[in-house]
Amino acid sequence: MQDTKEIGVLLFPRFSNHCLANAVEPLRAANMLSRRELYRWRYLSVDGAGLASSSGLPVQPVKLADHGGDRLLVMPSYGFRDWLGPEVLAALRAASRRFGTLAGLDTGSWLLAAAGLLTGRRATIHWDEFDAFAETFPEVQAREDRVVIDGDRLSCGGTTTTLELMLALIERDHGGMLALDVAALFMHGERAPRLDPAIRVPARGMVQAAVALMRRNVEAPLPVAEVARRLGCSQRALEQHFAAALGRAPRSVYSAVRLGVARRLLEQTRLSVAEIAGRAGYADASAMARAFRAEFGETPTGVRKAAGGVG
Questions:
Q1: 15: left (phi over 0), alpha (psi -120 to 50) or beta
Q2: Separation of alpha carbons 71 and 153, rounded Å
Q3: Percentage of the chain modeled with pLDDT above 70
Q4: Which residues, by range, are in coiled-coil regions (predicted)?
């Protein structure tokens, strides 16, 4: 079993609720979907005093100096220039020795750069501040990207890009399938890419669109060739996209999607195993049970009993 990653979320007065949710909800979802505590997080502030978000949500954090961990997410959001004093910058430099990775979310890169923690590194920031950031910190390699990962320094440009960064980290930590499952909970990547032949769609975007289509067609699964046709590409091209993004074939991923649906129904409903098999696109319970054991190493009835359901 892999170790739980310890995440610190460093907040400042008037932080963004939206940014915070996009940072921690994917971690919660990864824990829920994997049925293991892959991530544990705590809310921090420089002085440990209580604070409130830009919309008034109160949070009682603990003191930054008392904690370390695998990753520190720095989230000042609005009014970040108010936190450029020596106390905050010294606290960030000290924290860089206790946390393995530092991430600037939204406007967090400004604080990291001011503390000298992005020198010679690639980084981005909220695009409203990008030009000023690039001019103020010429020693930082400012990039107009949504997400930038440069070794143990991470950054993203705003609230929605925070979700993209967290999905990228979940994929790096635990693989592409879990990241796709987490994204699906938030309907991220559900829209099919624009099928302009002059634009090369990245493998990740095509895979997300294909998996979204699979999720909408679980009870009556589509042939892989039909999935490709609806996305405007050849089956061979789709298979190449899946190989590049996940190292799995579309058929294998489709099976995992259907079995994931079956598992959630086993754990969360009182439907019979036979009815669940039908809802997951299997001809009968025996066929689902064979595929289920191959995917999870468990039987459907065993999973239901462990969840406290009925047989």
A1: beta
A2: 10
A3: 94
A4: none
